[in-house]
Each structure stands twice: as structure tokens, then as C-alpha cells.
Amino acid sequence: MNYTIRITWYFYKSLIIWCLLVSFFAIYYVFEGELNIALAFIVKIFGYASALGVRYLNYNSSKTNFYFRNAGYSINRLYVYTFGFDFLIFIILISLSTIR
């Protein structure tokens, strides 16, 4: 289990900037009152889709992620773990930002 967390963290580091930018963008507009929470979740889902699209278009999937594949981890499963962890952080941050 500890090794899975470490591998997921290494995989998440390649997506962390994009995920944090989308999260802070959505939280800022929720805090300003221009978005409601449901739309913030939709923005976050579109952020995940755009991250997947950019990674798919910019990287040749047959030449990347050798480390993760050789370690025996599925790239799709790592995406699920990474986005699940990021979404959990997003829920915590958005709940803290709505407390006034």
C-alpha cells in the first residue's frame, strides 16, 4: 500500500500544477459569488478532461510512463487514484472556503 501511494504521488506531480490552477480558479469564483458549488464541480470535471486531453495530445502514450508500467501499475488506475485524491482535496478546500 505504501508503494502504491508513492507511485501515485510521482504520477500526480506531473499533473499537480494544472489541477491546482483549476481548483483555485473554481474556489475563487465560488468565494466571489459568481459560481455556485455545483458549477464549481463541473468546472473541476472539465479541468480533469482537459488535463487528460492535453496529456493525450502532447505525449505519445507508447513512449511515456515506462516507470509506472514497468512497476506493474495501470495508467488508467493511476489517473483514477490521482483525480480521486485531487477531488478530495478540492472538496475540503471548497467546504473551507464557503464557511464564513
UniProtKB/TrEMBL annotation:
Source taxon at top rank: Bacteria
Record flagged with keyword Transmembrane helix: yes
Residue intervals passing through the bilayer: 12-31, 37-57, 78-99
Keywords linked to the UniProt accession: Membrane, Transmembrane, Transmembrane helix
Protein name: Uncharacterized protein
